[in-house]
């Protein structure tokens, strides 16, 4: 007699964010029996949200909308000068209205994602998942009721959450998990951290009219090109953000924050909101990884091989929770889709994380592709590089008094091959400018290729194909 | 005839091409002179050094387009929570033109400075060819001098042309030469033409609050992708611009109170209406008729455009021509600049590289901007046939449009035209916000022969409009282009 054991599912995906949604739908579209469990453990301040993951609910989407709202305020200085009357440059901002508009949008996206899962044939389970053994998952729903399911293959895409500050009460501050849903204006704000999350949030809070200060332990945007990190910071200072470098918080008592500088000198100030944005931590606690022996690194991130496979052969991982990968939505989506092609369609195509374009949506946006100047020098040596730079003023910046020498571009070129190994742009619409260049750079474009391309006039992007000065 | 100066290189026309060539030649140590003189428009408008782009083209156009967009943003500002933005606030034309003209004058001054620094001798005089190596220069008072030059470069550009069927039309209408310098707001405006000039001007005038009508003889944006042209028209109509199609004006009369009574025929029926301003934007012609080209033997076509070889040489050995005045060249600033620089490199720098006009990116700054590279759908089908191409398409909604419910959700579009045989992307069309900024980078990739797969394997920046270009799956003729959001 033959006993056939059937798993509940061919594929079980844990985590309904960018990576999880993409992989679950891709597998279901191939006819596999797929389930996806998504559950948001409330933040220490009680904030929770629907399916879609960080990007949709507490990341890319609300971040960009708030950034856009702040930028819209910035246009007021131009509007009068181009002839419009009735614009009060100093008019205040209605925070609650903005949160209402954005959260309605996010709720629509949650519903859309639920619907898309349904249309694709993925069973969506709003429960917290925990691995019991390599093929068994325990699910706990909102009411605390448990159930067990089995799956032939499992993908872990649980993403990450803001890291809490050791030694400070988590309820004495908020994080990016809470900020976008706050139903009261943040008021005078202190942001703790020098990450892009810290700077993007400080940027739009300041732009929306709030007294904004930033506490930075060492430097801004530590892993990024430091020349451009400085420019990002400089522009924010020009816009009124106050930075405290070399400072770490020691106490938060009610609304009063105490911090010390690198000499140990203490300062205290009262804030309405304290936003902790030091870094993010993989959301792998209570996942039961120890039950299946999955290895994690010192940051709790899951270790995988180049096929996104953990050391438990039928369990894979994609996205922010994975060690050594980029924390971006588009890479999680692409990794998820490629994984499904490998698992079910015999593909051998793996992710290539080189030359991925990224953008920081600070008040003056910064985009980069490839290596920072520091990394380039480390890898190739200063003598093997030619660094082209151009400072420019966008045509529309001539209307009102804007800094004429802050927008710039940099191309790091290898002398031996003439290839562009680092592309850096700080200026308006950095992301839109940079995207197309990423296609060319991935193809191995050289400085000569850039130079022989005709510019679009007038634009900021054309500056990147007209660089002559180098060092 | 007394020769007052001898040069290695003499440039006639101080626009994009002329200035670039002059400066580049001077950087090699050549002795360079440049003559620039603006003949006033029939309405009397004139301007300084820099050519069409700086004074009556790209620059003021973009600034006024920005001014119109700045007005549109008011609705978004209110939705985003900004208080004290009055959506009913009116636009002050003079405040805008003052700012725009101040910037243009700064540019005029800056160009004079640059020529000075490079030791290019600048003549604010009207040039004429006297002999194949002698130029006659006439100043504004009629004073004459002659210079001699080893090489002569003609870079005189173009000026708006006028329809020939209406008597004394030049007295009753304005063109893009005048629009940016109008001392008073244009009021209720009729624009005659279907070019990008007509649509860009109509677009910003409407955005600034003026009653705007565009009269078109046949199709919009001839030579451009017609599906996109149709969507540009739809968007402009949604925003209140009136189009009168298949119509040509047959008479324009000045009324008692200085308005214009325009009479036109449309499908055989006559109509008329009164406008404050009529703008003619039916085309541009090469500004070569006073150069004395025929006498010297420089060949032109019947539209006055100079006929050149691929290395920018005219029919006379030492005379070259670049930019808008040359037959077969795109009428764009960046191509004129590059062409001028490469010419100077060849004449004085011992280099051989010639200008390549393949995959030149362009952008039309209509209310919804359009950026394109390579083949339009019509051109692709014409050259390759329908079977040899695949068209990927997408209709998408920019993230920022989620602030305002009323943003027209189907307005933005992307098309990629791909060759079946090689999978090479031969046409890229983007209709949406920030088109100029978005399209630029793709031009490099397309020149390198990028395939659809190379586009698709490039990881997107999120959230942007541009990343949509890397995630096209819908095929025209098979799939619906509409997509869901993030």
In short:
Chain A: Belongs to the class-I pyridine nucleotide-disulfide oxidoreductase family. The complex is a heterodimer of chains A (471) and B (486). Chain A has 471 residues and is an alpha/beta fold.
Keywords:
heterodimer; A: 471 residues; alpha/beta; seven-stranded mixed sheet; five-stranded antiparallel sheet; 30% helix; B: 486 residues; 13 helices; 29% helix; globular
Please, could you describe this protein's structure?
The complex is a heterodimer of chains A (471) and B (486). Chain A is an alpha/beta fold and 471 residues long. Chain A has 13 helices and 21 strands. In chain A, β8, α7 and β9 form a beta-alpha-beta unit. Chain A is globular, with a radius of gyration of 24 Å. In chain B, strands 1, 2, 3, 4, 5, 6 and 16 form a seven-stranded mixed β-sheet that branches. The N and C termini of chain B lie far apart (74 Å). The mean pLDDT of chain B is 95. With 486 residues, chain B is an alpha/beta fold. Chain B contains 13 helices and 21 strands. Chains A and B meet through α3, α4, α5, α10 and α12 of A and α3, α4, α10 and α12 of B. Chain B: It is an enzyme of class 1 (oxidoreductase). Chain B: One of its GO terms (molecular function) is thioredoxin-disulfide reductase (NADPH) activity. Chain B: Belongs to the class-I pyridine nucleotide-disulfide oxidoreductase family. Chain B: Its EC number is 1.8.1.9.
């Amino acid at each position: 007699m033959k006993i056939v054991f059937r798993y509940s599912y061919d594929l079980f995906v844990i985590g309904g964010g960018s990576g999880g949604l993409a992989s679950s739908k891709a597998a279901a579209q191939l006819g596999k029996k797929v389930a996806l469990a998504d559950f948001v453990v409330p933040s220490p301040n009680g904030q929770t949200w629907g399916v879609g993951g960080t990007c949709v609910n507490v990341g890319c989407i609300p971040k960009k909308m708030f950034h856009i709202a702040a930028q819209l305020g910035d246009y007021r200085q131009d509007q009068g000068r181009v002839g419009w009357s009735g614009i009060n440059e100093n008019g205040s901002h209605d925070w609650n209205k903005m949160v209402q508009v954005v959260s309605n949008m996010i709720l629509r996206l949650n519903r859309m994602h639920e619907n898309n899962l349904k249309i694709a044939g993925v069973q969506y389970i709003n429960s917290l998942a925990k691995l019991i053994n390599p093929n068994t998952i325990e699910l706990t729903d909102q009411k605390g009721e448990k159930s067990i399911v089995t799956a032939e293959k499992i993908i872990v895409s649980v993403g990450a959450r803001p890291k809490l500050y050791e030694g400070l009460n988590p309820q004495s501050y908020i994080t990016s998990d809470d900020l976008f849903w706050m139903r009261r204006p943040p008021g005078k704000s202190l942001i703790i951290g020098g990450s892009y999350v810290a700077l993007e949030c400080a940027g739009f809070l300041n732009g929306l009219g709030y007294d904004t200060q930033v506490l930075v332990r060492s430097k801004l945007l530590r892993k990024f090109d430091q020349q451009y990190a400085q420019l990002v910071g400089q522009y924010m200072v020009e816009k009124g953000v106050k930075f405290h470098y070399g400072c770490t918080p020691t106490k938060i008592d009610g609304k009063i924050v105490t911090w010390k500088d690198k000499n140990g000198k203490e300062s205290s100030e009262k804030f309405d909101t304290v936003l902790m944005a030091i870094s993010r931590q993989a959301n792998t606690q209570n996942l039961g990884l120890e039950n299946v022996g999955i290895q994690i690194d010192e940051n709790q991130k899951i270790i995988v091989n180049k096929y996104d496979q953990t050391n438990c052969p039928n369990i894979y991982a994609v996205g922010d929770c994975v060690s050594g990968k980029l924390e971006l939505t588009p890479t999680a989506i692409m990794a998820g889709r490629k994984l499904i092609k490998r698992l079910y369609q015999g593909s051998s195509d793996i992710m290539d994380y080189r030359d991925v374009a990224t953008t920081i949506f600070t008040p003056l946006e910064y985009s980069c592709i490839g290596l920072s100047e520091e990394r380039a020098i480390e890898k190739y040596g200063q003598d093997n590089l030619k660094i082209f730079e151009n400072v420019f003023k966008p045509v529309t910046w001539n209307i009102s008094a804007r800094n004429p020498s802050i927008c710039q571009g940099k191309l790091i070129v290898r002398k031996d091959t003439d290839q562009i190994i680092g592309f850096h742009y700080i200026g308006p619409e950095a992301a839109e400018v940079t995207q197309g260049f990423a296609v060319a750079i991935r193809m191995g474009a050289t400085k000569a290729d850039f130079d022989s391309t005709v510019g679009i006039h007038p634009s900021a992007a054309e500056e990147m194909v007209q660089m002559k000065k180098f060092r | 005839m007394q020769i007052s100066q001898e040069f290695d290189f003499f440039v006639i026309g101080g626009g994009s091409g002329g200035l670039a060539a002059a400066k580049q030649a001077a950087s090699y140590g050549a002795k360079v002179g440049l003559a620039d003189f603006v003949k006033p428009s029939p309405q009397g408008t004139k301007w300084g050094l820099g050519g069409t782009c700086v004074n009556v083209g790209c620059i003021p156009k973009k600034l006024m387009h920005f001014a119109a967009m700045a007005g549109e943003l008011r609705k978004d500002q209110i939705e985003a929570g900004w208080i004290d933005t009055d959506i009913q606030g009116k636009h002050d034309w003079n405040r805008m033109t003052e700012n725009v003209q101040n910037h243009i004058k700064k540019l005029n001054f800056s160009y004079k400075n640059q020529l000075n620094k490079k030791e290019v001798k600048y003549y604010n005089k009207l040039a004429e060819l006297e002999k194949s190596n002698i130029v006659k220069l006439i100043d504004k008072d009629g004073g004459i001098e002659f210079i001699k030059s080893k090489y002569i470069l003609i870079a005189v550009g173009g000026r708006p042309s006028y329809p020939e069927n209406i008597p004394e039309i030049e007295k009753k209408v304005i063109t893009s030469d005048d629009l940016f310098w109008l001392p008073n707001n244009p009021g209720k405006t009729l624009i005659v033409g279907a070019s990008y000039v007509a649509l860009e001007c109509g677009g910003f005038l409407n955005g600034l609050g003026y009653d705007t009508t565009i009269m078109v003889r046949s199709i919009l944006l001839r030579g451009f992708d017609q599906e996109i042209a149709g969507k540009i028209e739809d968007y402009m109509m949604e925003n209140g611009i009136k189009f009168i199609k298949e119509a040509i004006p047959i008479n324009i009369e000045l009324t008692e109170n200085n308005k214009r009574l325009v009479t036109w025929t449309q499908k055989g029926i006559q109509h008329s209406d009164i406008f404050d301003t009529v703008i003619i934007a039916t085309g541009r012609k090469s500004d070569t008729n006073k150069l004395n080209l025929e006498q010297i033997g420089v060949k032109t076509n019947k539209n006055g455009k100079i006929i050149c070889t691929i290395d920018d040489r005219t029919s006379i050995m030492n005379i070259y021509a670049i930019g808008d005045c040359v037959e077969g060249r795109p009428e764009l600033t960046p191509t004129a600049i590059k062409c001028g620089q490469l010419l100077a490199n060849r004449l004085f720098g011992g280099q051989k590289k010639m200008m390549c006009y393949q995959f030149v990116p362009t952008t039309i700054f209509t209310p919804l901007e359009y950026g394109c590279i390579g083949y339009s759908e019509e051109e692709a089908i014409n050259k390759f046939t329908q079977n040899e191409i695949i068209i990927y398409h997408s209709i998408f909604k920019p993230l920022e449009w989620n602030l305002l419910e009323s943003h027209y959700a189907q307005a933005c579009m992307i098309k990629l035209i791909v060759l079946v045989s090689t999978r090479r992307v031969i046409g890229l069309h983007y209709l949406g916000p920030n088109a100029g900024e978005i399209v630029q980078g793709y031009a490099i990739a397309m020149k390198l022969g990028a395939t659809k797969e190379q586009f698709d394997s490039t990881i997107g920046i999120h959230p942007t409009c541009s990343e949509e270009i890397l995630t096209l799956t819908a095929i025209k003729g098979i799939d619906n282009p509409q997509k869901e959001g993030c």
